[in-house]
Amino acid sequence: MSTVTASSQREHRVTTRSLLRRKRQGRPFSMLTAYDVTFARIFDQAGIDVLLVGDSVGNTVQGHENTLPVTVDEIIYHTRMVARGVSRALIVGDMPFGSYQVSAEEAVRNAIRFLKEGGAHAVKLEGGRRVRETLARIVDADIPVMGHVGLTPQSIHAMGGYRVQGRGDRGRERVLEDALAVEAAGAFALVLEGVPAELAREITATVAIPTIGIGAGVHCDAQVLVQHDLLGLSDWTPSFAKQYANLGSLASQAARQFAEEVADRKFPGDEHSYR
Length: 275
Fold this sequence. Notes:
- This protein is of the alpha/beta class.
- 43% of the residues lie in helices and 13% in strands.
- Strand 3 (90-94), helix 6 and strand 4 (122-124) form a beta-alpha-beta unit.
- The chain is globular.
- Mean pLDDT is 95; it is low at 1-10.
């Protein structure tokens, strides 16, 4: 994207309707996870279209092995911080495990909290046919919902690990039916995670709503990456992700230099001291 294009796009708030127009126009858009005001501001000013306050905070920030321990209160806390740094991007709050599985009524209450307390513009929940009624109830409450099918991290134990979904005729049919169910329930967009590229292409051509790929090939209407994978802040980067910078190495180098200068009494110098 050129500087002129990015600058002009920053003048207008991204909405669910504008993302739908992007799909119809064949113009891919970008989504990144964000968990605090600093990176939210950086990504927003860089022209990222959608910021997902993901339950991936459990892995990336909290140090858990998976996303399951993350709570609604924790995600809303991070959503508030992200909202303070954004003037253009669409903010999506990720509904964590346990926040929508018990009942549709509880799911609606939790989704309302994301908008009222967190400042989100929409919520995301995982699952296809099994959550369609809950998804529809949230949409009926005038809350935009982003769906998520294929590899759904909150179902890690049921799936037997992080495994590619949609392989073989039965797998393909299952993921396709999930995608159609999410669209029919009223979702404004759909994350496709960990599915074969050709299946993602088929789903993208079949549904009218934008598809957002992560480990789903190039033919989706958008792509999403986890912030820590993008910036080289993870101990391990999945094969489907691309590291665009290595901030982890730079941070380590800076901290090491600081420690050495403190040990050698080189910092603080006169210019860093008051008189």
